[in-house]
Amino acid sequence: MSESPYLLRERGREDHAALDRAWEDARTFAFVPAKSDVSDAWLDAALAALPADLRTAHFALLTSGSTGHPKLVVGSRERAEALARVLHEAQASEGVDETILTLPLSYCYAFVNQWLWARVTGRRLVVTRGFAEPEDLRRALDGATNAMLCLVAAQLALLTTHCGDAVFPGVTRVHFAGGPFPQAELTALAARFPNARVFNNYGCAEAMPRLTVRAAEDGEAASDVGRAIPGVELRVGDDGELGFRSPYGAVAFVEDGVLRRIGDGEWGPTGDHAEAQADGRFRLLGRANQVFKRYGEKIALGRLLDTAQSAWPGQATFYREKDRMNEDGFVLLLSPAPSDEDVRAILKAFRTHHPRTHWPLRVESAASLPVLPSGKTDLAALATLEGREVHWRNRI
Fold this sequence. Notes:
six-stranded mixed sheet, single chain, alpha/beta, 23 strands, GMP Synthetase, Chain A, domain 3, 9 helices, 396 residues, Rossmann fold
């Protein structure tokens, strides 16, 4: 059998069987979305760059690098299976019998936390196309038995749109990753999933993808990602960026046509700034471009998002913008539209906890926030989103 790495595109309901075959085949494969702006030629060239020792017993997933260019991240199957077993314990999953897909399997979160977890532990994988076929997803949720659900926070609005106030007692674990944890919506989640424990999962594609797991009740802020899972080390560098070292992480990546190996024991960047807490927990301050100086004062959008969400139960995010003095600032964007009372409550929270220079330039809203195929909020589209309504302007 040839040891040439090969490309496997996502095909919907056939993915489960195709992935099983690929995982049992010795050849390394890249599992990528069915539709992508990354060409087959780029992917073929990236796979061709793999050296002999990475051409078997590995897999690769597509993500975006720090430049925004495509990045093929290469993982070890042995390491990934070991991570799935660690997550089984860290997420208290022994009593879970099945996992219901709502996200594309080509997304690292769903690939490891659901497909690979189900394969390693012998659990049932319930394949749906998520909110692309909401009636099918609703049937799966109605029929759930001791089920795990993996979501990103942006999907909660879709859950309300398509399921109303429906209650799903058969879901016993709800996991969030891929963006800010919906700490402010825990009461609503408890009503919808009365028998479920909720977890905040943090990581990055290079970690394949998990670094921390925190039970929702073990913290009060969305930015609190808890402690590192067994085997993983985290540290905050002098520049404030959170780094990691993991025995489960990626072994190499291809970016801009160049292969870069990740050595055993090498510290890698998460792309986030964070604070280490005395009890071993970590609190995110935001992505590298979300921590900046405004009038000489350090702004950490992750911390400000905690403040906004303490007074607002809906979706909230920020996009960057300069003020009339050409100083860096940001706009708070909410969904759905807040009432005047909601806006006053949000501003009161900012007034209580932060100086005026930390306040948003404006408070805006949109009927819904744009999302990527992975379900994450499309941050690049926020500043040009049509139909935004302005509720308040900062006069400084």
